[in-house]
Amino acid sequence: MLHTLMQSPYKTNISLLISVLKKKDDFLALQDGVLIALTNNIFLESIMFTSANLYLIKEDVYARGIINNISSDFMLISYMHFVSLTLKNKIQMTW
After folding, report:
1. Which of 18, 48, 90, 92 has its CA 20 to 30 A from that of 33?
2. Which HAMAP family does the UniProt record give (predicted)?
């Protein structure tokens, strides 16, 4: 399953999102959702504990000027790779 976070983690029910993430799920943050990958934020340890595959849209990270402050547990990907994730995951949930 692909979970996409499009808004700030502070405006989303992150505890619910994290509770439904499974080990083989893909998690992608884009737009303001990329803030979840900031080092030392309150959600980071919980989302890393899920063992889901963690991705960020690199254009959104750069647009917010946070490239030097994101966790190395997230993989930066392009929108092209985002399309590949949607094709791979027949079931998707947007947060």
Report:
1. 90
2. Thiourid_synth_B
Q: Which domains does the chain have, with CATH numbers?
A: 2-94 (3.40.1260.10)
Q: How many residues does the chain have?
A: 95
CB-based contacts of 65-70 (< 8 A; 24+ apart in sequence): 66/34, 66/35, 66/37, 66/38, 69/38, 69/39, 70/34, 70/37, 70/38, 70/39
